[in-house]
Amino acid sequence: EKRRVTQVEKNGYPDSIYINAAKIFQGIHTEKSEDKSQVRYGDNAESPMVTFKDEYSRRASYELAFNALKYQDLLEEILLDSKAYPCYSIPDELTSLLVVMLYDLQDRKFRKGKVFPEEEVVAEVQEIGHYLYSYKTKLAAALARCRIKYDALSIEYFLPENVWKQEKRASALPVCFWINTLKISLEDVIRDLEMKGFTKVESVSDFDHYTYAVDQHCHDVLVFPSSLREELLNLDLFADCRLILQ
């Protein structure tokens, strides 16, 4: 019997990913002049060391950090409007962690995140997570006020038009994966995908949700519909590096 791939719900990350995303964000966030900056990020003199335990951790950390960067102005406005910032129990050195965790919290509609019992618990992440969740109603209200203020249907409307158009184009592109032939053969990948309910088609023009095609020029590359990106990245084939995202 074929198994269906279930819709991936956004339910948070292990503490290590929040810490890594905060370190990355600390080094790339937009610096503002003293007279305009109401949110302070502490000393940025040295780039902190970032270590990843696997490919998923690396990808998720960078994705979270850059999403926070894209919406930095909005996230800061939400923190200030909700009165969640400033908080004197949270030092400036943890503001980056506060911002990236706020992005994730609003991304999952202010719902509680999943507990990862097998992962190491980081005290700072737990503290800020509980703090933000205690403000969830005020944070959600602040986001709603921002959307009304700027006549924005969703937070994507806060992006500059050129960035928004680029992301829209990129999101429509098919997703390509290399087959790591050192670990698995094309035949075994196809067998695994069929077990998960995927159907092979001849070309991208034949895509219909749970479908894929073999690249016509590179037979160790598989192509999938863009709508399946998040689901594919949660497959064991990707986690085990048997498929590698192009």
TrEMBL record:
GO terms for biological process: methylation. Keywords: Methyltransferase, Transferase. Residues 179-246 form the NOL1/NOP2/NSUN 5/7 ferredoxin-like domain. Pfam families: NSUN5_fdxn-like. InterPro entries: NSUN5_7_fdxn-like (IPR049561), NSUN7 (IPR042620). GO terms for molecular function: methyltransferase activity. Transmembrane segments: none annotated. This is NSUN7 methyltransferase. It comes from Zosterops hypoxanthus.
